[in-house]
Design brief:
- This protein is mainly alpha-helical and 113 residues long.
- The protein has a single domain, classed as Cytochrome Bc1 Complex, Chain D, domain 2, CATH 1.10.760.10.
- It is built from six helices and two strands, in the order H-H-H-H-H-E-E-H.
- It has a two-stranded antiparallel ribbon.
- Strand 1 and strand 2 form a beta hairpin.
- Helix 2 packs across helix 6 and helix 5 crosses helix 6.
- Bound molecules: heme C.
- Heme C binds next to helix 2, helix 5, strand 2 and helix 6.
Length: 113
């Protein structure tokens, strides 16, 4: 069983490396791979990095209401920079397809308690 998982992960890594992966990864997988380090698996942003960056709590209904879909898409596509132009979150449009990014927005919406 463990070996199967390792093999699957290896195949996934290879497909990422070569860019030959045709199937888009599900949002949960992308979230785990690219976003949890800062935003946390639960979307609360209570990770070491997340706390330092004072990330929003995506389970908070008020936070969800204040975030607009377009802003979320823009943040994931183009990254987030502070007012001095320093990168706070990197752009993901080179790594993720437009559909994957759209799915991630929907995924974040589901954190709402
Ligand atoms: C290096 C840490 C880091 C990673 C990794 C990261 N983010 Fe962010 N994210 C941030 C920071 C910092 C902000 C800006 C918060 C602010 O404006 O104060 C942000 C903002 C956002 C926003 C805009 C709404 C908001 O909370 O201000 C969305 C949506 C978002 N991130 C989604 C994602 C997704 C999806 C991924 C994975 C594909 C991801 N982030 C990966 C740090 C990160």
């Amino acid at each position: 069983m463990k070996t199967t998982i390792k093999l699957a992960l290896a195949a996934f890594a290879v497909s990422l490396g070569t860019g030959l992966s045709l199937a888009a990864a599900p949002a949960a997988e992308n979230w785990d791979n690219h976003c949890t380090k800062c935003h946390g698996a639960d979307g609360k942003g209570q990770t070491k990095v997340g706390k330092k960056l004072q990330l929003k709590d995506y389970t908070d209904a008020k936070v969800q209401t204040e975030m607009k879909d377009e802003e979320m898409l823009k943040a994931i596509n183009e990254g987030v920079f502070d007012n001095k132009g320093k990168e706070k979150m990197k752009a993901f449009k080179a790594e993720l397809s437009a559909d994957e990014i759209k799915d991630l927005v929907a995924y974040i919406r589901k954190f709402k308690a």
